[in-house]
Structure formats: C-alpha cells, structure tokens
Amino acid sequence: MAGTTVADDGLVEQSFTAAIATAGVSESDDRYPAMLDHVRRTMGQSKITVFRALLGDEAAAQRANTEFRRHYEGLVAAGHCAPVPGAEEAIRLLRASGTKVALTTGFASGTQQALLDALGWQDLADLALAPGPGVRGRPFPDLVLTAVLRLEVTDLRRVAVAGDTPSDILTGLRSGAAVSAGVLTGAAGRDELLAAGATHVLDSVASLPTLLGVPS
Predict the structure, then answer these.
(1) CA–CA gap between residue 55 and residue 155 (Å, rounded)
(2) Cα 146–152–158 angle (5° rounding)?
(3) pLDDT given at position 22
(4) pTM of the predicted protein model
(5) CB 194, CB 201: distance < 8 Å
(6) CA gap 147, 204 in Å, rounded
(7) Cross-referenced Pfam families, in alphabetical order (predicted)?
(8) Are 143 and 131 in contact (CB under 8 A)?
(9) Which residue among 12, 53, 132, 166 has its CA within the 20 to 30 Å range from the CA of 40?
(10) CB-based burial of residue 177 (10 Å sphere; 0-12 exposed, 13-18 middle, 19+ buried)?
(11) Burial 87-97 (b: 16+ CB within 10 A, else e)
C-alpha cells in the first residue's frame, strides 16, 4: 500500500528511526546509515523480518517492530496520510468492471487497518491482507496466492500485481501472475523495477485500469 496506493512521504523512514532507537541506535550512530540503506532496499517486505535481519535478536526485533507500529500508526492518526492521486478512482473503476481487488502490505495487520480507517477505505477493496501466521510477506508469493484463494480467482493468468518495490515485482512473478507491474510513486525507480523483472512500469497505479483494458 505505502508507495503504491498510499503516499509514503517519509513516514516509513521516520518510524524506522524511532524503532531502531529501542536497540540503542541513533541517527548519529555509525551503524545507522547501513541500517537505513537496508530498510530502503527491503521496502515492501514484512517489517518484523527486516528488524530480525538488522538486529539478529528476536526480543530486540519485536521491540523495534512494536515501536515502528506505534510511531507509524501515530503519524497516520495525526493526519499524515494521503492516497496516491488517482488510486482510489482506479480501484473503484476496476471493481465496477468486475475485477476483484486486494490491497496487500508489508505492515502488520493493525497498521494496515489504521491506514484503511484514516483514508475511509474500509470497504474500498474486496480484501485487505497483511503478513501473519501461514502468510509470509514479500518477496514470497503468499500474499498474492492467499488473495487468489480467498477471492476464488480461477486462473492465475488473469491476475495482475502492482507495487512500487522490487519485492512487489518478485511476489507477482513467483505467484505466476500474468502482470507484475512496477509503479513510480514509491521506493524504486524504473531501472530497479525492470531489473527485478517487472512486466510493465507505470507512472502510477492510476494507470492500471488502462493497462488491463478496463474502459474509463
């Protein structure tokens, strides 16, 4: 969602900075730049997985993840949250055409719900999914495949995935989706998305209905 349908505006990095402070790492710490670079390179992946890789200790990773959620959800509740222009309209257009839409994220389910509540998107999509028990986060294919099962999609060749990170692209490719499109409203540039194997690169998710042949 962040970077694809929801404008990020630095909220993830702000929340990471607050979270990593629970492990004694400040912005002036020599370790901070490499950690921030890792966060940028793994945008789209499950946040607890990122903290486990950075900290190598489960208790420390859980503390950082809890603080990340607290800080990010606080920013969202304070109004620092906006949709990517045209994203809501694109989703409504897709659904009106009979296309089923799932919103997926690397955030915890509670953080995803905070975003949906802040934007008034509780009923915008057919399904909202986050990593959890039995559903691994990106770049594993689980989020797409779980959406396929829950929405009773009959053919993976009729599935399209769109996202702003290489992890999104890999998730789509590994699931067998016919379209794994990158968008340029978030973490990665055109070259990164193409290097990850993107089947298409769009300026925004607002262009997705046109790509899929949905009349406006």
Answers:
(1) 40
(2) 85
(3) 95
(4) 0.86
(5) yes
(6) 22
(7) Hydrolase
(8) yes
(9) 132
(10) buried
(11) bbebbebbeee
Alpha helices per DSSP H over the chain = 11-20, 32-41, 47-55, 58-77, 87-96, 109-119, 142-150, 166-175, 190-195, 208-211
Q: Which amino acid is at 22?
A: T
Percentages helix, strand, coil for the chain, rounded to the nearest 5? 50, 10, 40
Q: How far apart are alpha carbons 180 and 172 in whole angstroms?
A: 5
The answer to whether the CB of 61 falls within 8 A of the CB of 205 is no
Both tokens of residue 199?
């089947």
* Number of residues written out for the chain: 216
pLDDT tens per residue, the chain (216 residues)? 989 999 988 888 999 999 999 999 999 999 999 999 999 888 888 889 999 999 999 999 999 999 999 999 999 989 899 999 999 999 999 999 999 999 999 888 999 999 999 999 999 999 999 999 999 999 999 999 999 999 999 999 999 999 999 999 999 999 999 999 999 999 899 999 999 999 999 999 999 999 999 987
